[in-house]
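Q: I have 133 residues here and want to know how they pack in 3D. Can you give me a structure?
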Amino acid sequence: MTPAQIEGFIDRICGLYPSSTIAVTKVKNAWTADDFLLLEDVNEARRIVARIMERYDKFPTLKEVHHEFKLLRKPAIEQTIVVCEICDGNGWDTGERWNYNTKEIICEAYTRTFMGHIYTYVVPCKCREFSAA
């Protein structure tokens, strides 16, 4: 939004709360300099005014307005994230495989013996090959 559009946005909110005792010029000076609001879309700001009218009993703070913009952008349905069963999404294969039916480890970790000591190690998971492409 441009500073003029932000001022119009503030005027609409002030119209919702005519009895509020805020210094409109101070609010306009602060909000028109806010980088977050300058990057927002005017159409979203119009939708925010309706949300503010429903949710707030007094003139909202700048932090509350930011929160409303963020809520507007949040998807209504949580997106499912597919996690690799080998590495649990961390990108490293330990060699251990878990059987969910019997709830036990099927394969042991990758181990290497060096000078009489047994060391476990990890290797890059195969799922990283697909994500790099």
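Q: Anything worth noting?
A: The mean pLDDT is 85. The chain has six helices and six strands.
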